[in-house]
UniProtKB/TrEMBL annotation, chains A, B:
This is CinA-like protein. It comes from the Bacteria. Residues 4-175 form the MoaB/Mog domain. SUPFAM superfamilies: CinA-like, Molybdenum cofactor biosynthesis proteins. Gene3D superfamilies: 3.30.70.2860, CinA-like, MoaB/Mog-like domain. It comes from Blastopirellula sediminis. Belongs to the CinA family. The lineage of its organism: Bacteria, Pseudomonadati, Planctomycetota, Planctomycetia, Pirellulales.
Length: 401, 401
């Protein structure tokens, strides 16, 4: 069973508005165990709508359409359903009464143009809209020997969500071949190697068609491995995912720092809290991003004692309080200095990024100081978060050693 | 001339990630006078990708694809192009060299897996990717007697945007028929009053149907007034907007700090640069966000001398170096201390947010110290950006006084 989500509106195809309904509907369908194959967004043009409704009905078993049910001339969803599936529009007296009541309750008589909101493709069911004037469409078709069920809901998120929850969700649950089949995603967060290198370490695991499926995505140098399973409940889903999760952890070892939702600062924060230890940092390249990350992490917040921002190598040297003998040495001195000044167990420091894109960072603790250097090629907006993560990861590895 | 945007990835169809690339690309295409007819999002399945590439090529003149160009097994865009349009994949030695150089410059040998990123559908042009390993595809086809041009770019927003701006935009501009009617937005950025209060100050200006139309949006306490016009060129668009822009500036005066794309740190940075002055900051509630904002602003970067992170009132008091006589006094002392320590013209300081949600912030300069207090009801995380802006705005007003 596969679903397609169709969003309708010039404001979406023109980029004036961001479509969040489709993401929400995808998550809801996933929770019903129905995979979403496509999202389609179409402008308010009758031909386009007819076109994409036919395509959706040809390749999906469930189609959920949002938008285009208003009363104005550019609301074409009803007409598109009628033309695409050859269903003449018919007036639904009950819906008309509902719409008239809504206006009456505000002491207004219904404008004639709202009458169109009570017109429905022949043979469909009406999806009630308690919060608005536009009821939804629930149409079941036989198409190329398959049964396809199409729903149309208003684009207003509040109305769409309420109508989904009150009516459509249950209706689909009933339809669904394997009812109450859940889809669950389990994530392992990794840091320290490139995407392709990491995949080489997991031979054949990212391959399409593997059960359970493993997906890999990268965001600012943090790699997320997503194991997707489905089953009748969470216990069954987790049971299917566990062997794969265990295998990945065994292969990647310390490269895995956390699970769904974790960032490096959360992992570091948990380790600091468990050890009852604290940290301070001196930042050049990251300009406060490490301090901000540790402060915003509920796990790390209490262990962060404070920091120093030194934009230039000169400002860093002044702070480190030694004649500069190479950037790395200055950074190491700064790590010791900030640890000493704030009286913490760990002191972090990162130097500025030089013309060649090179920078050094260090961690100081009771055992001494360790430092590493790195090189950025990417866009400056990318390197700052990446550099902050490298410093946090050096601390993480230091604490594990 | 009509365009279609195709986004690829399970993380999008499953609803795990929100697709923002398609919105951005739609706006960019609109600026080129090219209407977008459809957005399509497809899962990482070869059949689905081939299917939706063919459909897009059948109904659009320009197709822009994002995602699926990574080195791993679930990156299928190249293969989908090859199958959909019957173009065997061929190795591009130049791209391979570029990818190898990127790894080499980081002192790493290229993993074999990345070799696939140098494979391209026969007869296409390569879109250079200065910030990443995945070059893009630029393929022109004859299809049903029409010429269709398809581009494939990485899903990483920063790479996609740079490749669009450096290469694709110009290529399409060349393709494009006579630049159709342009739509232009002119923004005025405001800070210091609430949205409804500001609307009261602009009687009847936000009304629907006004020409030109004025829209109002708020993001983290920064209010954006957007004047929308359309015309045959920028000169005509601006001529239509100018009287409205002037009227708004006259009414709002110093509440307006900038124009399209401006943030408070940019406005403050321009003022500091013009005056040849510098600033340093001591942050509790904002935990480095002010330092980061000033550093990331090209206009402010050179005027920022450095800062101090003091997470708690106690840490702040220790730094201020005086017995605490009420938070405001400590914050004022910290502003003077950081100004003195970094030898800057201005010193900024903000205290922690107390249990009641109250916090103080101050600006110190040669004339003395000014401070203000504020109150948050929301969660500190949400309030942090607003607090940082309040401090920058106090500096802005101090410099104007």
């Amino acid at each position: 069973m596969r679903a397609e989500i169709v969003a309708i509106g010039d404001e979406l195809t023109s980029g004036q508005r961001l479509d969040t309904n489709s993401q929400w509907l995808s998550q809801e369908l996933g929770n019903l165990g129905i995979a979403v194959g496509f999202h389609t967004t179409a402008a308010d043009e009758l031909d386009s709508l007819v076109d994409c409704l036919k395509i959706a009905a040809d390749r999906a078993d469930i189609v959920v359409v949002s938008g285009g049910l208003g009363p104005t001339a550019d609301d074409l969803t009803r007409e598109a359903f009628s033309l695409a599936f050859d269903r003449p529009l018919e007036l639904d007296p009950e819906s008309l009464a509902h719409i008239e009541r809504r206006f009456a309750s505000r002491g207004v008589t219904m404008p004639e143009r709202n009458r169109v909101q009570a017109m429905f493709p022949a043979g469909c069911q009406v999806v009630p809209n308690p919060n608005g004037t536009a009821p939804g469409i629930d149409l079941t078709l036989e198409r190329n020997g398959r049964t396809v069920r199409l729903f149309a809901l208003p684009g207003v998120p509040i109305e769409l969500k309420e109508m989904w929850t009150q009516t459509v969700k249950g209706a689909i649950g009933g339809t669904s071949a394997a009812p109450a089949n859940l889809i669950r995603h389990y994530e392992l967060k990794c840091f320290g190697v490139g995407e392709s290198r990491l995949e080489e370490m997991l031979p054949d695991m990212i391959r399409r068609g593997r059960e359970p499926q493993v997906g890999i995505t990268v965001h600012q140098a943090t790699i997320t491995l997503r194991v997707t399973t489905n089953g009748k409940d969470d216990v069954e889903c987790l049971a299917q995912a566990q062997p794969t999760l265990d295998e990945i952890r065994t292969i990647l070892g310390p490269l895995v720092f956390g699970e769904t939702g974790d960032e490096l600062q959360d992992a570091v924060g948990r380790m600091l809290t468990a050890a009852g230890q604290t940290v301070a940092c001196c930042e050049s390249a990251t300009a406060g991003l490490i301090a901000l990350s540790l402060t915003e992490s509920p796990a790390a917040n209490a262990s962060f004692a404070g920091g120093r921002i030194t934009p230039s190598l000169q400002a860093l040297s002044v702070y480190a309080g030694e004649a500069s003998v190479g950037e790395t040495a200055v950074v190491e001195q700064a790590a010791s200095k900030v640890r000493e000044e704030f009286g913490t167990d760990y002191g972090l420091a990162i130097g500025p990024i030089d013309e060649s894109g090179a920078y050094s960072f260090a961690v100081a603790d009771a055992k001494g100081v360790v430092s590493e250097s790195s090189q950025t090629l990417g866009h400056p907006e990318i390197h700052r978060p990446r550099a902050a993560k490298q410093v946090l990861d050096l601390l993480r590895r230091r604490m594990m050693s």
